[in-house]
Amino acid sequence: MNSEDPISIPNHLRDGWHVAVLSKELRKKPLAMEFFGEPVVLFRKRDGTPVAMQDRCPHKNLPLSMGKVRGDQIECAYHGWQFNCEGRCTAIPCHGPAERTGKLRFRIPTYRVIEQDGWVWIKDISGNPLEEKLPRSLPRDKNHRWFDIKYQTIASPDLILENGMDSAHTCFVHRGLFRSNPAQFINVVIRGTNDRVVAETKGENQKKSGEKDLRVLTNKKEIRHVDEYHYPGSLQIDYWFGKSHLVTHLHVTPNDTGKTSVYIRMGLQFGFFTRAIYPVIWLITRKVVKQDRAILENQQRMISRMGKRSFHHSLADMSAVMLSDLYKSGPRANKPEWEQEENVSFKL
Ligand code: FES
Ligand SMILES: [Fe+2]
Known about the structure:
It is a single chain. With 348 residues, the protein is α+β, with helices and mostly antiparallel strands. Helices cover 20% and strands 36% of the residues. The chain folds into 2 domains: 18-131, Rieske Iron-sulfur Protein; 145-347, Naphthalene 1,2-dioxygenase Alpha Subunit, Chain A, domain 1. The strands form 4 sheets. The chain has an 8-stranded antiparallel β-sheet. Strands 2-11-10-5-4-3 form a 6-stranded antiparallel β-sheet, with no helix packed on it. A hairpin with a 4-residue loop joins strand 17 and strand 18 (259-269). The chain starts with a strand and ends with a strand. The site of FE2/S2 (inorganic) cluster has 8 residues, from loops.
């Protein structure tokens, strides 16, 4: 399997929901972020509803994120012009006797935003809002303990997603923390549908895979492992060790060219041991994230230097290839029933 792909972010992704910020990050002050290369300001109305619009004052182009929130409006820091959540100018403090904001025809471009499960999600305004699907619901189960990690990196969003679905790298990049030398053949059933790729791994045994940290607590049970990619930018990675459960949600948001924000949320449920193991998992996750980040940034640097990708895949890359295809071409709107199933076996 060979592939040569230009480095680009397909435009159709903008119509899908991406995480703009963590809910807890958006407080009283306006907050700046970038979405597909565009500056965006987010703020909350009096009732707490989040609002997003282009972060550029139409008067003299100061970032609105430098301003203040006044009621349900945002006020520019330069000359105090105010804008409502539809992006319309509602006040020009230093106006002439006959000058009224009603005469101003411009409107700041706004975005669709929704707050759900502790994230503020953003998407382009397109289509009929009544027919629009909400972001996938990901409630935080009370039996689990949860934590969030967020970072920005210079790597294409699809490379980050592929990395999350790539089991083979864990034996090398995370050796000792999470898997060690490939020691057993595992079977993976991969199902691709219209807007997702689900890969279920069977036959992995903790004793052989050398997951020292968790083995003690989980009684050497076989691991059940499912990776899911949900278009456009979300992964869910589940591990079950008997009744114990570890789930990772990872969301990528394209910022400026080459820069991507990564939002990781991890939930763990190890019964009686949950509290005790929480700081251990937190520490391991931070280390794992750091290791992946170093790999991804170096991979991206090489691709950028060479001007294109030239990948030569092996069987262990099957789910990443299916993910990448969906990411690039988008959901098959005219074939909602589309389905592909692959069974692969490789050493892990
Ligand atoms: S630049 Fe914003 S009010 Fe003048
Ligand atoms: Fe990794």
